[in-house]
Amino acid sequence: MLDFFPSMTLTRYLAKLFVVRILAVLVMLVLVLMMLDLLSTSGTILAVEGNGQAELLQYASLRIPQLVARFLPYSVLLATILTLLVLNQNSEVIAMKAAGLSAHQVLAPLLFAALAVSAVSFVFNERVVTRATATLKAWQANDYGTIPEDSGVRANVYLMDGPDILSAASVSGTGNDITMDGVTWYRRSPEGQIVEQIRSPRAEFAAPGWRLTDAERFTVENAGAEPVESVVVAPDLTPGEVDLSSIDPDTVSFFALGETIDTYETAGRNTDELRSKWWHKLSGPLSSLLMPLLGGIAAFGLARSGALFVRALIGMALGFAYFVVDNAALAMGSFGGYPPFLAAWAPFFLFLLIGETVLVRTEE
Question: For residue 155, what pLDDT is reported?
Answer without folding.
Answer: 67
